[in-house]
Design brief:
Length: about 325
C-alpha cells in the first residue's frame, strides 16, 4: 500500500492520553488523571520510546543479524560484533528469527501497550515465523517487529536504558476544559489516498476520509481527518495530525496528534485538545512519525495537551 514506511504503531502510553478519563463531573480532574495515566505508562512498561535503543528497516528477502551486548550496545549488520546474536529475515509479509552462535532467545507476547507477558517466553530452537504481537526476548532486551508485504522494521528496547532512568514524566499544558470542542464530521464523498512524509524522510499512505469543522474563540476551524482504510468502521481510529501557533516553540516542531474513534458520518464528536500528544520521535530518534498535512495548520494557539518534551536526543 506504500513505498517505504516505518513502524507507526502508537504506544499505549500515548493511547492512554487519548482515552476518556473517569470523573465526568470534574473535567479538570479528569484531564489531569488522563495525563498521569500517560506518564505512568511510559514509566512502567519495558517497551516505550524511552527504552528504545535501536531500529533497523528491512526490505523483503533481507536477512540481517542483530547483536545486543551486555553493556547496552546494539548493532545490526551481516556479522555484528556484539556477543548475543540473532538473525532476522523479512519474507512473505512476516519476520523469521533464528538463533546464531549459541544465543538463547525467547518469544513472548505484547498486548501492543509496551508491556510484555508470559516471560521468559518460549525458547527459539530454530528458524521460527513470528506471529503478530510476538516479541523476541534475549537477555534484558526486547525486539518488536512491524511487517508488511513490502517493508518492515525491528526495534530494540532496553528497560535499563539511560533515557528511561532519566524519565520523570511528560510535560503538559494546564488543563483546559474550554478546548474540549464539539466538532462536525464532514465525510469526503470519495476517500482519496494521500502520501504523508515522515520525520525520517520516508512515506506513509493514508486516506483523506473527511474533515472536522469546529470553532475556537468563535472562529471557524477545520482539520483534515486521515485513516488507514478508505471506509472506516465504527470504532476504527481516525488520525488528526496538526500544527498550531505554538508549534516549534512551546510544542514539538513536527506537530501533535489526536486519535479519535470513528462514530459514523453522523456521529457526535468532541475534539479534546487536552489529549493532543507528541509524535514518538520527540522522545527518541528510533521512531518515525508522520508530518501533519499542510492544510492542518491552525493559526490559533492550542495551549492544551502535551508540550515539547524537555529532553534532547
Amino acid at each position: 500500500m506504500m513505498a517505504a514506511v516505518a513502524a507507526l504503531g502508537v504506544a499505549a502510553a500515548q493511547d492512554a492520553a487519548q482515552k476518556p478519563a473517569a470523573s465526568p463531573t470534574d473535567p479538570v480532574a479528569a484531564i489531569l488523571a488522563s495525563h498521569k495515566t500517560a506518564d505512568d505508562a511510559y514509566a512502567n512498561v519495558p517497551m516505550s520510546p524511552f527504552t528504545a535503543v535501536g531500529v533497523q528497516y528491512f526490505t523483503p528477502g533481507q536477512a540481517l543479524r542483530l547483536g545486543v551486548g551486555p553493556s547496552g550496545g546494539v548493532e545490526f549488520g551481516a556479522n555484528p560484533a556484539a556477543p548475543d546474536v540473532l538473525e532476522f529475515t523479512l519474507a512473505d509479509g512476516a519476520f523469521w528469527v533464528a538463533p546464531v552462535t549459541g544465543a538463547r532467545p525467547f518469544i513472548a507476547k505484547t498486548g501492543g501497550d509496551g508491556d510484555v507477558s508470559g516471560l521468559p517466553g518460549t525458547a527459539v530452537a530454530g528458524k521460527t515465523r513470528l506471529a503478530p504481537r510476538e516479541v523476541v526476548h534475549i537477555g534484558r532486551f526486547f525486539v518488536e517487529f512491524y511487517a508488511r508485504p513490502d517493508t518492515g522494521n525491528a526495534r530494540v528496547f532496553d528497560p535499563e536504558s539511560p533515557t528511561r532512568k532519566a524519565y520523570t514524566g511528560l510535560k503538559w499544558f494546564p488543563a483546559a476544559p474550554w478546548l474540549q470542542v464539539k466538532a462536525r464530521y464532514v465525510a469526503n464523498p470519495t476517500a482519496t489516498a494521500v502520501t504523508i512524509t515522515t520525520s525520517r524522510g520516508l512515506q506513509k499512505e493514508y486516506f483523506r476520509v473527511g474533515t472536522f469543522e469546529f470553532n475556537i474563540d468563535r472562529a471557524g476551524q477545520r482539520l483534515t481527518v486521515l485513516a488507514t482504510v478508505a471506509s472506516p468502521k465504527a470504532g476504527d481510529e481516525l488520525f488528526v495530525a496538526f500544527r498550531d501557533a505554538t508549534t516549534g516553540q512551546e510544542t514539538y516542531e513536527v506537530g501533535r496528534y489526536l486519535f479519535i474513534p470513528f462514530a459514523g458520518a453522523d456521529g457526535a464528536y468532541v475534539l479534546d485538545f487536552n489529549k493532543a500528544t507528541n509524535p514518538l520521535c520527540n522522545y527518541s530518534p528510533h521512531y518515525n512519525c508522520p508530518i501533519p498535512p499542510k492544510e492542518n495548520v491552525l493559526a490559533v494557539p492550542i495551549r492544551a495537551g502535551e508540550m515539547k518534551y524537555p529532553a534532547h536526543h
